[in-house]
Amino acid sequence: KIIHSDSERLAQLIDDILDLSKIESGKLRLDLKPCAIEHIVKKVIAGLDKQSGNKSIEIQVDIPSNLPDVSADEVKIAQVLLNLIDNAVKYNREEGSVVISGREKNGFIQIDISDTGVGISEKDMPRIFERFYRVDKARSRELGGTGLGLSIVKHIITAHQGEISVQSVLGQGSTFSFTIPKA
What we know:
The protein has 183 residues and is α+β, with helices and mostly antiparallel strands. It is 38% helix and 23% strand. The chain has helices spanning 6-24, 37-46, 49-54, 74-90, 137-143, 149-159, and strands at 33-35, 58-62, 70-72, 97-105, 108-115, 164-169, 173-181. A 5-stranded mixed sheet has the order 2-4-5-7-6. Strands 1-3 form a two-stranded antiparallel sheet. A hairpin with a 2-residue loop joins strand 4 and strand 5 (108-115). The longest helix has 19 residues, at 6-24. Residues 1-5 and 137-142 have low confidence and may be disordered.
């Protein structure tokens, strides 16, 4: 969601801080159920049609239909996907692309979100999951964001007993990967 006004920015910051507080204090309750990750991805993408269309970003889903279900809190995993896919669109170039792929890996399902965007420098990559850390502060403010999204994402994935990582080349794009257990 693109945040335009100062009041929208403040409201989003408060929501993000409350989410992060709950997660960090151990009060986050997960409603784990078997879910089809492809279904969650498609619902999230449907909500991003306007943003991706504004920049002519092509979003592709490459998740095999026979991929096993994950054991997940669907709402929280949708929040993870929304944050990562929204970032992939926001920090992409005009007429770029985003590819969401999935595969089975050692008892987990791995989801990769790759973009053709601006990328992240090597010096910034170790810190991007920290609270309030922003790679490009001016651009983040312009596009709307609180600097908490990736920290929240990391905590949600960790709460699911998964892992998250990033690979990126400045000027060429990034791939965020996370794992969650199979159902």
